[in-house]
User: Fold this.
Amino acid sequence: MVDLEVKIGGITLKNPVTTASGCFGYGLEYTDFLDISRLGAIFTKATTGEPREGNPSPRMAETPMGMINSVGLQNKGVDHFIEHIYPHLSAYDTHFIVNVSGSTVEEYVEVASKIDVLEKIPGIELNISCPNVKEGGMVFGTDPVSARKVIRAVREAYHKTLIVKLSPNVTSIKDFALIAQEEGADSVSLINTLLAMAIDAERRKPLIARITGGLSGPAVKPIALRMVWEVAQAVEIPVIGLGGISSATDVIEFMLAGATAVQVGTANFIDPAISLKILEGIIDYMERHGFSSVKELTGALEI
Amino acid sequence: MVDLEVKIGGITLKNPVTTASGCFGYGLEYTDFLDISRLGAIFTKATTGEPREGNPSPRMAETPMGMINSVGLQNKGVDHFIEHIYPHLSAYDTHFIVNVSGSTVEEYVEVASKIDVLEKIPGIELNISCPNVKEGGMVFGTDPVSARKVIRAVREAYHKTLIVKLSPNVTSIKDFALIAQEEGADSVSLINTLLAMAIDAERRKPLIARITGGLSGPAVKPIALRMVWEVAQAVEIPVIGLGGISSATDVIEFMLAGATAVQVGTANFIDPAISLKILEGIIDYMERHGFSSVKELTGALEI
Amino acid sequence: MNQIIGKKRIEDLEVTGNKWLNEDYFVLTLRSEEILPDIRAGQFTQVKVEGSPETFLRRPISFYDVHPSSREIRLLIRKAGAGTKRLSALNKGEKVNMIYPLGRPFSLLEGNRFLLVGGGVGLAPLYLLGKELHRAGKEIVFLFGFRSAGQLFDLSQFKDLGELYLTTEDGSKGEKGLVTGHPVMEQGWDAIYTCGPEPMMKVIAAVAAEKGVPCEASLETLMGCGFGACLCCAVETVHGMQRACVEGPVFNTKELLW
Amino acid sequence: MNQIIGKKRIEDLEVTGNKWLNEDYFVLTLRSEEILPDIRAGQFTQVKVEGSPETFLRRPISFYDVHPSSREIRLLIRKAGAGTKRLSALNKGEKVNMIYPLGRPFSLLEGNRFLLVGGGVGLAPLYLLGKELHRAGKEIVFLFGFRSAGQLFDLSQFKDLGELYLTTEDGSKGEKGLVTGHPVMEQGWDAIYTCGPEPMMKVIAAVAAEKGVPCEASLETLMGCGFGACLCCAVETVHGMQRACVEGPVFNTKELLW
Ligand SMILES: Cc1cc2nc3c(=O)[nH]c(=O)nc-3n(C[C@H](O)[C@H](O)[C@H](O)COP(=O)(O)OP(=O)(O)OC[C@H]3O[C@@H](n4cnc5c(N)ncnc54)[C@H](O)[C@@H]3O)c2cc1C
Ligand SMILES: Cc1cc2nc3c(=O)[nH]c(=O)nc-3n(C[C@H](O)[C@H](O)[C@H](O)COP(=O)(O)OP(=O)(O)OC[C@H]3O[C@@H](n4cnc5c(N)ncnc54)[C@H](O)[C@@H]3O)c2cc1C
Ligand SMILES: Cc1cc2nc3c(=O)[nH]c(=O)nc-3n(C[C@H](O)[C@H](O)[C@H](O)COP(=O)(O)O)c2cc1C
Ligand SMILES: Cc1cc2nc3c(=O)[nH]c(=O)nc-3n(C[C@H](O)[C@H](O)[C@H](O)COP(=O)(O)O)c2cc1C
Ligand code: FES
Ligand code: FES
Assistant:
């Protein structure tokens, strides 16, 4: 038996395969397809202070080996999460990590504080990288000063594992990773979506109501992999890699580049059972290559 | 007959379809496949002051609907260009625009000055966005201060049409477009490749000798389109759009987003005759939609 | 990769038939190795299109017909782009990966006389609905609109279930004009069900609202996942943004803000 | 999309045969509608793989055999990944888009006795080379290495051209070991031609260099375009970086810095 355990801050994941925010609901949408308790963790859809309707439709477009979404931060707010969703989560033997979003530093802090007291939630993912909102979101993730401010404020208010989710829409993503580390984050996750656009040439209109949205899927994998590599070279805290992962091979690549764990996003839409197939594939790889612990893969790229 | 003419600075292109630097050699590699004189223009491979060997092999990797290259600036230098290649170009009835690169401001200026006196070269494309060299290249294209310095210096030395090729590896590409405009560039072209990475999971080694390289092809199109849209909103000078173009529909999309002309890059490798098929497709689109001049397409997105 | 856990399935079905009805429409018949789940009219399947580089996401297709005894389902598909084109080229014996059954079906509304209005490929779910209503002993009338006679195909299976009226935009078959102008619309109906182009459905919904007749419409929204996880299929309703793939694709038209 | 201008062509060829030789190797036969251009041993074609989302770029494949009279070419292909797998599934009558002929062929070196050393699928260009040399009246000997007998296939067509020696790594057929240890290597040759795994070719080149025998090797470098435009296939040589697709794939081994 291979050892699949990895640690992110104070959280021990039974394996490095987790699912990405906004791509796996609260996990409950997937219970028909797989045993979600076998996942290392589930990152929930973004949670904000107040309920949000998200963006108008159409909210998506298909692109070559990818998709653009502009869902925005549609969710019923942190109080609804606590009252109506949280109670269902303890039925599952995996970690739920709440993706925390907001328009202002105060909102981030408010949500984080409310989640802090939830016994079964061992950590949050601070989403400073959503490209689909006018205020907050990516604005925090692309300006070093704002990034530092919001991370610092949340770090003070939140006492469990804090993961900061980074935006790829920057000149130097490692600068933001270093800021997160300096401000006491336990981990960084990357990448969120790349700002993108799609047009219907025949109708001469944007395909997405908000004109631009976030690109995800295999198309972005080579960019995500490079960013994980860059960040892993720069920081000491564990890196969670994501962006286009759709096979065990992809996961191995991210881990070799320096990731301690990974998130599977868009690929779940095409095959809702893919995350566990990926897990099987990792075990197979480890056995073929004689790795006894998955931790040995992290940063094991030979150069 | 539809009117296909467009203007970039002082250059009148017979149509908006041109080929991207590094993807079309000096055009001569393609004469078996198509009549290159029918192209709006040909952007040559990067030219530097001294001959360069480029990067070690392997220099490329295939990715989902894209490729990574790390050719580097392999070329025989500006003097070789002037003596051995330039004389052959006048046989073709199209514009050759020389892609100018360097490691220092002085080298850029040297190359630009030497090209300036070549009667048949109506313009240069200043490549401040090559991700595949240690010095110069993208360093100039991702730092506003360096970008301004090199553009200013070249603008002083070069008297014909100056196009600045922008890097997508930045937080705000329109800032760089505005700098180019302020410093007197006649046009900006975008995007160059996105910094990316590929790994061979089985051998646990990078697939590219230099570890990272530049991503191109359809995978990047949604990002390129968004950047062209952003830049076209911000500047007055004409924008040349590129990144993943492989069909007439793609070209229409870039023009609707604000491009005056386009470059076809990676797609030439898969179908060396594609640029003229694209041109036919544009004419077909214009006829179906009742456009008499291709200029009407620029920025015609309805929002 | 058959996984049959709970209610929604991911399953490889075998193509047992693929037939063009006209230049644009074809019927794809697929057989499951397992007993079919309960599938209701208005529900759909997310089809994976293999061998097509342009088709990254699955394609949502309504159930056109279901035969539990032979474990076969039929899909009526219009060749729209790369994905449906690839589906049209499938041969007998090939496998197609599907997630199904998905979405909220049409409801059995109160009353006895129902009008089923379809446009183009929107006929698909109305056939299965017709069968369900017929089985429940209801009187049903179909009103179908096509662009021209060329789009038509053999509709006799619909006629076995109820009366059928036709319109074509160019008058090449049936009444000339749009379904929305057909006199049968004016009769008294207990409920109207509709599926087709959105502008058509909006007019039907307006007529129904005016007459106070309950109306359900099946929307064709772009979908990322099809099973409630991505929120890409959001539709504006009086209850806020709802997912066309879970709270729909069938909506009571008085709930829609369109 | 046939365009036949000048020397290199972009052309749709028709599959007239596709046959497995063993578990991994197959021979794809393609027919042109036009008179074939002059194709020389060592040259290759860039094959477009349709219907495979994983295969963005073309795939370079050497010419294995050319029949000008029937306008047919044959490719010997090893199933390596997604692209070659898709090619192995092509049926008679399907079209394959190719750019050809590409690259620098083997040269007719001085002398009369030539050794042709191949490993695995590297046999492909050596058959066409054997035919050319045989036609020129040269004496040729083939020395082929395989991993095991399972990789072998009917080599009688090679035997029609000259003597043939075999090695397998596990000794299941021919001499046990690598080609590089085979005694025939030690005979006096006027020139050696080789195609196969790079480590094998390096040893062959070293032996040739030591004996002062001219040696040409065909390299399998990754290619972006295949016709000289992208500079992705660069090979380090004594003349600097050279393109495997134009200055190669066949190089005189004394020019290679590998
Ligand atoms: C719940 C639901 C049920 C459907 N049932 C059927 C059915 O029974 N039969 C049938 O033929 N079609 C049905 N559709 C529409 C079908 O999904 C699209 O025609 C198909 O996805 C187009 O894929 P493509 O690759 O062929 O075309 P693409 O190249 O993707 O697109 C071609 C054109 O179709 C449009 N289109 C793409 N996806 C959709 C979509 N999801 N909905 C509407 N338009 C789209 C595009 O905007 C474009 O204009 C249904 C859609 C939904 C949401
Ligand atoms: C000039 C030239 C001539 C060739 N002639 C033949 C031939 O006659 N018969 C034959 O079977 N193969 C030949 N090859 C190799 C063939 O091109 C590759 O096996 C093929 O491209 C793999 O494609 P794939 O999609 O099946 O595999 P992929 O999934 O792309 O790759 C599978 C494995 O093959 C390796 N590979 C991919 N592309 C190449 C390449 N261009 N060269 C070498 N290895 C590669 C990959 O690194 C990977 O390990 C030739 C290559 C070159 C450059
Ligand atoms: C439909 C959709 C919704 C998303 N919503 C969120 C979100 O709420 N919060 C967040 O941090 N990231 C969100 N993301 C980004 C993903 O978590 C992930 O960072 C990105 O999609 C890249 O990974 P992938 O290519 O594997 O999908 C969303 C992505 C998609 C496609
Ligand atoms: C093999 C290769 C070599 C390139 N060389 C250059 C270059 O020398 N100078 C330059 O400005 N851009 C170079 N580029 C970038 C392209 O010109 C273009 O900006 C990029 O590939 C995006 O366009 P595409 O997706 O259409 O290829 C190169 C791209 C490729 C793929
Ligand atoms: S399509 Fe994903 S939630 Fe409806
Ligand atoms: S493969 Fe493009 S130059 Fe050789």
User: Anything to note?
Assistant: The interface with chain A takes residues 61, 63-66, 68, 142, 169-171, 194-199, 201, 203-206, 211-212, 215, 217-223, 225-226, 229, 244, 249, 252-253, 256-257, 285, 300-303 of chain B (CB under 8 Å). Residues D 223-226, 228-233, 243-245 surround FE2/S2 (inorganic) cluster (ligand 6) (CB under 6 Å). Chain B has a mean pLDDT of 95.
